[in-house]
Automatic annotation (TrEMBL):
InterPro entries reported for this sequence: CPA3_antiporter_subunitC, NUOK/Mnh_C1-like
Keyword Signal in record: no
Domain of life: Bacteria
Positions of transmembrane segments: 21-43, 69-90
Signal peptide range: none
Protein name as catalogued: Na(+)/H(+) antiporter subunit C
Ranges of biased composition (kind: Acidic residues): 127-138
UniProt family annotation: Belongs to the CPA3 antiporters (TC 2.A.63) subunit C family.
Annotated membrane topology: Multi-pass membrane protein
Source species of the chain: Brevibacterium otitidis
Length: 154
């Protein structure tokens, strides 16, 4: 079982690294099932009854219900994210008739621009003292409302 879990994790990670959204979905589902298997393997030795052994009704004879609850929670989370990924795949197919993620040319141009520092690109270089909103900013947005002005807005 450990080997099957390891193979499922490895295949899931491999599929999630692809640009195809369908393969990402399949990889995520494999990883979800491998996680369920991991939780099941950590619950204890196989073959034990789900609640009690029928002889010893003390806490020693009871099995731990936490792994079962965690597996049910993991199933629900995997189902919800799978539904979200399916909606993304469907929307991508309807818009561009393609479900592969492509590099954005403009993003690549900006990333490879000469002389740009990462802090400057992220806007965290500290060179701006004010925000970009309003007319007091260094580079105000054209047509932005000045929220500092006192005027009757009724």
């Amino acid at each position: 079982m450990l080997l099957a879990m390891g193979v499922m994790y490895a295949c899931g990670i491999y599929l999630m690294l692809d640009r195809s959204l369908t393969r990402v979905l399949l990889g995520f589902m494999l990883m979800g099932n491998a996680t369920n298997l991991l939780i099941m393997l950590t619950a204890g030795p196989p073959g034990r009854p789900p609640l009690t052994d029928g002889v010893d009704f003390s806490p020693v004879g009871m099995s731990d219900p936490l792994p079962h609850a965690l597996i049910l929670t993991a199933i629900v989370i995997t189902f919800a994210i799978s539904a979200f990924l399916l909606a993304m795949i469907y929307r991508s197919w309807r818009l561009v008739r393609n479900e592969n993620l492509e590099d954005d040319i403009e993003d690549m141009r900006i990333a490879f621009a000469q002389g740009r520092d990462t802090a400057e690109e992220a806007g965290t270089s500290g060179e701006y003292d004010d925000t970009e909103f309003g007319d007091e900013a260094e580079a105000p947005i054209p047509g932005a409302l000045d929220l500092d002005e006192e005027e009757d807005r009724t």
